[in-house]
Amino acid sequence: MVLGKIEVAKDTYLVGIGVSPGISIGEINLLNRNTTVDDWPITADEVDAELERFHWALEQSRDELLEIKQKVSSKPHLREHLYILDTHLLILEDEMLVQGTERAIREQISCEGALKRTLQQLRQMFDKIEDEYLRERRSDVDAVGGRIMRILTGENQRSIDDIGPRALVVAHDLSPADTLQMDRDRVLGFITDKGGKTSHTAILARSLEIPAIVGLETITSLVYDRLPAIIDGSSGVVILNPSEETFKEYLKRKQSYRYLQKELHGFKDLPAITTDNVRVALRGNCELVSEFPVARNHGAEGVGLYRTEFLYLGRSEPPSEAEQFAAYREILEEMQPHPVTIRTLDIGGDKVVSQLNVADEANPAMGLRAIRFSLREGKLFKIQLRAILRASVYGNVRIMFPMISGVAELRTCKRILREVQEELDQEGFRYAPVIEVGIMVETPSAVLLAPFLAEEVDFFSVGTNDLIQYCLAVDRGNEYVAYLYEPMHPAILRALEAVCRAANDAGISVGLCGEMAGDPLYALVLLGLGFHELSMNPASIPRVKRILRKVSRRDGERLLTTLLRLKTAKEVSACLDKEMRKCLPGIFDQVLI
Fold first, then answer.
1. Residue 31: helix, strand or coil by DSSP?
2. Is 439 helix (H, G, I), strand (E, B) or coil?
């Protein structure tokens, strides 16, 4: 098949980032939304008119979002996602966006040029953020900025409503509003040039069970309407112009995936109990209000990691105590009677709120971030603790301090927590009489001091994403060294063993909340290490639960003994893969579909 001079050969394979699992077979429907932005100087006499035009575009954008919100609110299964549209409505009032654009217009730049410059500045701010989830909030600003720009330029763009039947939507990027408006009877999946796993669009796709692949960079320039294609949202593979043989193969895979999903759904309400009666609590990692019902629907026994950073992001000032209290209360009530582990703020100060004005750092990953920032900004820390404590009477809350590196640091956190409790007592506020306090183990020093730290807390939660990077001195976002990021490196195995041994010796709970927790490949070895709790992306819970219910801790301990004798990550990974297929013939391959 030919597009101009570009021929799309049979079985053209492309690989992007699979953000929502599932296999879809259909025809490409290209949603071309490239907006041409002209930038020109204006005279002093034209400034007021341009300011008025900018505010008119803001109002038009608000009206469009409110119209979409009204349409979405009529569909019960989508109501829980309305907060995303509320977020976009708030972005329209964001001081940095509005005042930044106004300031540029007053410098005699056209409305379009002023908005373009302000959006570039905001993108640069987000690009500095190390946390992937928070960095992806840039896509929300882009979506709102794109909407305003489209109104200013007057360009008519193809709507989601124009999509034909059996469509695989291809676009440079899609906004959450686009995703919310997708008709599942017509839209089988989507593919984009831009995007990441933690964008609101990706999260919505997973929640709505729409197979999706993002980050393909140039897909919009390679395809055209009605081109046959296959997408595999689990692996991130896109096949353009599939041959008959490939079509039949993926038709079988799609059927197998459907059977698997149906079978996995049957595990939703079953406990994760091994064949030798060892129970493991499977919980969800959540950041957004909409993810809590999704976690429950996938059988999560609570939340093992609630990231609070999104409450602080992209604001001119930190959230108030009342605002945080309301958010925490809603979450705790939603997950009753299961526990919700609230991690205190885990981000660098220069990347949270503009008024703090913390200077840029040469090495932010090892600088003023997480608990270090909270201890430096004591007032901010106390406000968050007050909100958590006040909300604790509405559910089962656990407080977790991130990036603890030593006992003295932990004791300081506990002292401040006691001070906050005393203040609330004096003011007549209630809070739960017993609240578990724990730490994230994600630094090498915390591993080495695990026996001492275990005497000071009620639980450990291992954050393997950071622990692996710090232990192996590898930045997994650096393309030159990312290959060294090895979850099954012998050093990581030994670190995890040391942490679990210290926790079990002290009689406290130990969990894991990094990406390893949700990978079926690691389920048996984590069981053998002695973890009591695994916290993961909610969609991974049924797959991990199915494996745990078919193995014993004894199996895991035998596997661990074998793996600890090996000297390289390659040897460990090969042995682990072999043993998993041997221990779970057929089943292990199936959960990886």
1. strand
2. strand
Tokens representing 445 are: 């020093």
Taking 70 as the pLDDT cut, the residues of the chain under it are 1-6, 32-38, 76-81, 83, 128-137, 156-162, 198, 290, 313-316, 348-365, 476-479, 482, 588-593
Q: What token pair was written down for 421?
A: 């409790």
Residue 408 in 3-state DSSP? helix
- Provide the number of structural domains found in the chain: 3
Burial classification of residue 300, based on how many CB atoms lie within 10 Å of its CB (0-12 exposed, 13-18 middle, 19 or more buried): buried
Helix, strand, or coil (residue 238): strand
The model's pLDDT over 322-375, given as tens digits with 9 standing for 90+, comes to 999 999 999 999 899 999 999 999 876 444 444 454 555 656 667 777 899 999
Instruction: Supply 423's token pair.
Output: 């203040």
Q: Is residue 565 part of a domain?
A: yes
252 lies in the same domain as 314: no
The dihedral sign for the CA sequence 145, 149, 151, 152: positive
DSSP H or E run through 489: none
* Chain centroid offset of residue 525 CA: 25
In a domain, 212, yes or no: yes
Of 139, 276, 141, 186, the C-alpha closest to 550 is 276
Q: Are 462 and 442 in contact (CB under 8 A)?
A: yes
CB 310 within 8 A of CB 347: no
Instruction: Say what the pLDDT of residue 4 is.
Output: 47
d(CA 140, CA 388): 27
Put residue 564 in one of left, alpha, beta given phi > 0 → left and psi -120 to 50 → alpha: alpha
E strand residue ranges, 277-434: 281-286, 303-307, 339-343, 396-401
pLDDT in tens, 149-188: 989 988 766 666 667 777 898 988 887 778 777 777 788 8
pTM over 0.90: no
Last residue of a domain, one of 204, 229, 257: 257
| Catalytic site positions | 200, 513
- β-pair partners for 167: 27, 187
- Dihedrals phi, psi of 295, to nearest 5 degrees: -60, -45
Question: Cβ(495)–Cβ(460) under 8 Å?
Answer: no
* 496 in any annotated domain: yes
In a domain, 361, yes or no: yes
Say which CATH number the domain at 203 has: 3.50.30.10
